[in-house]
Amino acid sequence: xxxxxxxCQSHVSSWRRHCRLKGRRxxxxxxxxxxxxxPFPQPPECSVGGCRNRCISEKSPICTYHQRRWLAAGHRGTxxxxxxxxxxxxxxxxLTAAEFSLVQLLPPLRLELAYGIQQRDVLGSTMQxxxxxxxVSGALATGTSLLLAxxxxxxxxxxxxxxxxLRQLIWSVHQGYIAFSGHDLRGEDHFDLRAAGLKGAxxxxxxxxxxxxxLTVIPQPWLRRxxxxxxxxxxxxxxxxxxxxxxxxxAGQGMNRLPGGGIDTAALDFAHMQAxxxxxxxxxxxxxxxxxxxxRCDLWTALSQTIDFGRLAGxxxxxGSFIRRSSQRIPxxxxxxxxxxxxxxxxxxxxxxxxxxxxxxxVTYGAMGPERVKAMFQTAYVVLRDSxxxxxxxxxxxxxxxxxxxxxxxxxxxxxxxxxxxxxxxxTSSTVAAIETWQALRDTLPDAPSVSEPYLFPAITSAGGSxxxxxxxxxxxxxxxxxxxxxxxxxxxxxEGNVIPFDRSLIYPYAFRHSFAQRHAxxxxxxxxxxxLMDHDDPKTTMGYYRVSLERKRKAVKTLxxxxxxxxxxxxPCSSTAYEQRSVAVPFGGCTEPTNVKAGGHACPIRFQCSxxxxxxxxxxxxxxxxxxxxxxxxxxxxxxxxxxxxxxIDNLTAQITSYEDVxxxxxxRMAALPEGxxxxxxxxxxxxxRVRAGxxxxxxxxxxxxxxxx
Length: 711
What we know:
Layout: H1 9-22, H2 28-35, H3 64-72, H4 82-89, H5 107-122, H6 129-142, H7 150-156, H8 160-181, E1 190-192, E2 212-214, H9 221-234, H10 238-256, H11 270-281, H12 293-312, H13 346-354, H14 370-387, H15 391-395, E3 402-405, E4 408-415, E5 420-426, H16 429-442, H17 471-483, E6 489-493, E7 499-501, H18 511-522, H19 527-534, H20 539-543, H21 550-561, H22 576-581, E8 584-586, E9 589-591, H23 594-598, E10 616-617, H24 623-642, H25 647-672, H26 676-695
Antiparallel strand pairs: 1-2, 3-4, 4-5, 6-7, 8-9, 9-10
Helix pairs in contact: 5-8, 6-8, 9-10, 9-12, 10-11, 10-12, 14-16, 14-18, 21-26, 24-25
């Protein structure tokens, strides 16, 4: 391989001239030896500050690049004249793609940008040279302060990145001005969320977006002042502050309708508090629809807490009549029983599974390639669907989230809500295979942020405020996927026999947790087992995750009402209405004794001896409870014998056992005599009603002791 020799322009011209004279192409080395070529003295560096190029010659103080700029500006010659020296002092050096220069800017603007860049580094934001070059060009055109020309500069920015960097620089300079002068150019009622220290909604609490609020939307100055001071003291998250602000705006509008508008704190009284309550109780969204009862309750609580803060902090000296009353309460909504369940139907999940290959298509995720993005989103979906974990618990799975013990594999996950870490959940082999496939691919990701090293699903960037895939990013990807699916059918038909499309707004990540619970409940999983699978403390919480629809309950009641028997096992069928209305639930069946029904099961004189009562009405849905109670009575009888109890005690227990056994036996005989299809239908109906009783509000006979005086 030959040695590459680089020549300056003068030597290139000399070499070419000698080649023409010799009539052939002379090798460089031969040419140097033949004509005694000597190197020229090295010219000095370009006079432009920071420029790394060499001057054209010893006579010219600038390099070739700046010579072209000098001549393009309409000047002549490159002699070292005063005009050239003045021009050189204002020029930037030759810049690479990753460099920018502030030298052309006026001194005040140059200092503002330098301060903003310094603060950007303090905040941990990355530098964007391309954006800075655009900002410098825009600042050159405006030629004034960042604070005075902020709007003009923003209009000159073309990309989102440029606008974002400029917005942060302007914010930093503005905060510096406030710190120096103690005066906010935007006024006392302009509230900067980041400057006040409000936390972001991410787990890290880092606020990535800059936001500000004009508090003049609240008519009362005293309420604006209290809200601002509370936010500065408690530093809530952005969503929490928006709820506080919304409550104050709505309440302020209500008080503003009264004489005086609620401006004078000394004139505040019960009427103003009632006006604020009435306004919040009737609050509507942008479409004119009444807010949900839960949200309106949150608004009312937020307002009450804000006013309490004002009193405690000495910011509100209002009369004692300006206070929340216990009567000011927003009632809960009665939800349609058929619409209680949030679970995605299994036939819809099967349709989603059939089109899973398109999940993640078109999603941009940092430096990750399209196929890897799809693989990550699809794996997260499979884990979400099969495990029933909350979205945050799925996206924050540890990288080594599988634990093997013999033939069983458990998912290691963290219950962030309950603050219980490293929980274990048995999972199926198909779920394990999906996770292992992604783990192998995860190990090959070249550009995954270092902060994501411990997690299965990496973050989009190290500066995003989260160390792993964020649940809202996954939710947006799923929403885009679901909305773009070709077909997604429900199991209902219209009047013409056409399948009605499924409501796609009902498909979101958290709904899969409800589907998990509903799937297990339909399979007959005991409530205590399902509670452990859901990792709940209270079974009532678990019951809220699944529902038996009103239609299914009606069918079950209709089926079982035909199988009602008395204490002798004789069939006493009744209508479904009578089944529900003329009986009260007792531990081992229904009771039709009028006084006890009216008292809700609290007026039975022979408690827990139902099998000896003429008003006892069991049905097959109570078979399990009857047999369990018979076993419990047997255990009690053995204990009584061991205690050398009186004979009548033993006889009473024996009689009850025999009576319950007869009821159960005759009921099973009647069921066995039915066709197989009817038996299956009866068993399913019994399971449904057992589930309804487990999750419903109907109370069984209480375990209370009635004293002789009746108290």
